[in-house]
Amino acid sequence: MLDHTSIEINGSLRRNLEELLKLMLVIWCKENQALKLVAGKPNDADKSIIIQRRGGQFGFRMHGSRPVLISAIEPETPAESSGLEVGDAIVAINSINVLDKSHSEAIEIVRSAGDTVTLEVLSTCTVLNPDKIEENDDEEDSLYCGYLWKLAGYASGLPSDKWLRRWFTIKTDNCLYYYKTDSAS
């Protein structure tokens, strides 16, 4: 039987995990923007999607803020056939950058869009399972793999503000493993 204290702890843990996920997505979005800027690509988004309102709705739901994410796509709506995916992070709505906007600000931009909305989005479906997976002898034992950021010096207790990009994998033993790159010390 759950008591009041364990319910509070579970609620607190859930909120902390949600905040961690949001932070990881923001870092990933900003990293993606920086890489595209360095590469000279003019657009921050992976894809630009134009959706025409039909029957009074576009057919998608948004969740969260900084970044705003696509949380649901209604069946048989314009959003379903547009290429939009649940989990996509919205970079811009009708050319207005919303990476640093609140949920209510993003909703208001969509409401004022008229019958057509253009969404520039970053696909998050490859964050934990990217198409390009490094060669790994134990690849068949991996549930998820990809890149994450690790705070340097954390394990040794030394204060640090340096973040290191590490390849990680979650294996079937439910443990998270991370690997240094060849250039890392």
From TrEMBL:
Top-level taxon in the UniProt lineage: Eukaryota
Show where the PH domain sits.
141-185
InterPro entries listed in its UniProt record: PDZ (IPR001478), PDZ_sf (IPR036034), PH-like_dom_sf (IPR011993), PH_domain (IPR001849)
Task: Output the Pfam families linked to this UniProt entry.
Answer: PDZ
Q: Which SUPFAM superfamilies match?
A: PDZ domain-like, PH domain-like
**What positions does the domain PDZ occupy?**
48-125
PANTHER family found in the cross-reference section: AGAP008221-PA (PTHR47644), PDZ DOMAIN-CONTAINING PROTEIN (PTHR47644:SF1)
What name is this protein filed under? PDZ domain-containing protein
Organism equals Photinus pyralis (Common eastern firefly)
